[in-house]
Queue: 2 jobs
Job 1
Amino acid sequence: LAHAALRELLGPHVKQYGSLVAPNRLRFDFAHFRPLSSRDTDDIESLVNEQIRKNQAVKTDVMGVQEAVAAGALAFFGDKYGDQVRVVSVDTFSKELCGGTHCRQTGEIGVFRLISETGVAAGVRRIECVTGSGAFMQIKQLAHEVKELSELLKTAPSELVAKTRRLLTQLKDKERELEQVKLKMASGAKDEATVRTVKGIQVHAQRVDGMEGGELRTLADQIRDKLKSGVVALGGVKDDKVSLLVVVTKDLTARLKAGDLIREMAAAVGGTGGGRPEMAQAGGKNPEGVGVALNKIFELVERTVGE
């Protein structure tokens, strides 16, 4: 039934590449050129269940291979058949060569649920399905999970999707607010920053833990705009991962390249880095080296400008 539904809804190019069939579940591999959409899986599930509800007779005939193919039976994925084959038919909906056991009526299946769809190779998709008591247990489990979510979110099951969307929007808003607070705190943390003039160039080095790459770039841009002309070096640790960032104002990139500076700083934290002349980033595995890396920026600027 699943194979016939796939061919009817997706096209005649669908053919079986392999399967696993158990009493209450099945896995079916088939030729198809793209992932199935939610609508595809819903339509397949609906079509199979329609055939189950019709409670149609499952007819079995034994005949010659050529006679079976001439009668419209599908032969699977290059299997070798004997002179006589078993043809299983469900009314006009499905007719295949198959040696497995079957129900006498489609209604015996009970219910069909398509629970997953994945790719297993180029041009080959896989569906996994449950039937009968397996489908009932899966539906029961989903019902329990919906009930638990409703209790956690204090909303009716019918409102779960809308409530979840609102919460996700609120979470994103709070994350943006938190990012702004962190940036304000970092930009105002003068005691954590060291600013020196090296060979006539302002160099700002600052440790800012708990920030990710995007937050470091935003903070560096703010500091650069205040400096007007100079070098900004930021570094910190988040979740045991080291991040370094160097920004050089455009008027200085003829003498100082952010990529060159970051590569030498990265060695202190056991990492590597690179980037453009005006901005470069690095990562590392040694949190204890952050202070060394930031202090090194002054030496690097002095040495590079002096060359």
Job 2
Amino acid sequence: GLRQFTIKNVASKGDVIGEVPVWMGSESRVNAVAGDDIRVPFPTVGQDSVTMHIEYLSPVDAPVAEGAQVAELVVSIPTVPDKRIPLVSDRESTRGGFVPRVRAASTLLIDLAIGQVRSLLE
């Protein structure tokens, strides 16, 4: 049968929806914000069945411009295709200078070394 929906405002333009890590940027993280008001149709019956989560490629490569898409808000409503809403960066993260790049590289090397030690112990 025909499903009844109510349009709800889930976020206003500029609302912080989540945080996204930035690879080798001057900022290690940027906020993923609503680029516009986010309005979503909710079923009149079964509103609890609606789920939302953020998807992004981690980490986002620097540079990241303010207003650039960095993630998507995925809204799942049963029996309806997922609604994917772009989320944008609230600030710029330029390509990091020497210190952020060394920090990122050393973190990666430490993670790789730990992974190799784990595989040797298994």
